[in-house]
Amino acid sequence: MPYPCHLENPRKSPCARRSGHLVLSVLLFFVALGLAKDAIAFTQIAASPKSLSFGSVTVGTSHSLSEKLTNDGNRSVTLSQATLTGAGFSISGLVLPIALGPRGSTTFTVVFAPEVSGSVPGHISITSPGTALSISLSGTGVASPAASLSPSSLTFASQGLGTTSSAQVVTLTNSGGTTLSITGIALGGANAGDFAQTNTCGNSVAAGAKCTISATFTPSATGTRSGTLSISDNAADSPQTVTLTGTCGNPAPTLTSLSPSSAGVGATAQTLTLSGANFLSTSTVTYNGVGHTPTFVSATQMTISLSAGDQATAGIYPVALTNPGPGGGASNLLNFTVTAPIAGFSPASFTFPSQPASTSSSAETFTVSNTGNASLSITNIGFTGANPGDFSQNTTCGATLAANATCTVVVLFTPTATGTRSGSLVVTDNSNNVAGSTQIVTLTGTGIHDVVLSWTDSPSGGIAGYDIFRGTTSGGESTTPLNSTPVSSPTYVDTNVTPGSTYYYVVTAVASNGTQSSASNEASGAVPAQ
Known about the structure:
The chain is mainly beta. The model is unreliable at about 1-40 (pLDDT under 50).
């Protein structure tokens, strides 16, 4: 029957002596194996990491990654050669040949600096006697951002001390193929504190996009002031800079009102008060382009004296105020108006055709105009002269005529006697602000005892003219015409008449072949006795 072996204490175990040989054998076996392993020499080169991925790298820049080579063998190895492929990849910190002892290692750097856009593969091959190692490389070149500023400089007009200018705008454009990352927009230069900026750019500008930067100028001292506006970003030429320049001088004045703003023609001398902003004791004033000595009241008020001559003629007269340099300049213009109606009468004279006494002429029209800038008051329209009763009128003119308006007067000539007759058509008004002004048209005409005939043209064709027949009794017209040849127009004046007589007339149309038409209706004319 076998005895149990107690492994916890072999010496006390009945199996101790029997198992001692076995234990020794096992120990010797393992020692032999260990000696055999140490007796085999080998090398094994390992890379960490086994591949390098650089991701996206902007063209024109570079990115570096570290690589480690380790000899995992039990004997030294000499790395003799490294072969690199792939555009834009380079190695630094690896000097060959290099010997690595057991468990020895070396570290070097791989750099990816893409020259063009796109994916770029590559490899590093490490060779040594009896072994070779390959490390794969990858990276993508992306187009770089390209920043430009327009304009490249800003010049601010002369600005009053402590006042802020209008904003001027600079445009930042990214014409590159990737996002422009903005790290800062800053003001610098000799007088950076005199300038301020706001922008729409944020932290980045997309490829092909743009943003704006608005700059203002608030001078803290007189003279020329300067500064710079700088944009820091990831473009190759960062930072981009805009030059800022401004001048602090006298402010430009502004006119807001004139008091009074108008006067009538003929007004007496008076004071004109100018109100506005930025007036100086050295400011000058012009009225209608002519300098007038000003009296400085305050930065918002100044006065000048207007003479009667300044207000003698109707019109619009510009007023301006100018501040001297540096800076300064002319204000806006305000107009002072000298008002007056200006009447005209056209035509200035007229001669009526001879008119049988006690008969009325055709109407003749005369135009009254107001070319002034104030309403014309019309107080009377009538006739004067030698024979005012020979003329009569009808008018569209009222009691007033607006500026730049017209009205008409229609006149008839009805001579009360024979011979030359004359008169004047008179409009009484306030032209040029003078009450009782008169506008006069001279009228003349001749009264006659002639009988004037007129008729309607014959509608028939081939008419050579007309014959006129007269008699002293109704129906008793002569068979011989008054005219020696046919008259071409539909009118005839019978001058061979006796005052106090009545005459009767008929007219016939004469064809081109001499044939006469039947007589017209009969018309009569009574010649006045005087």
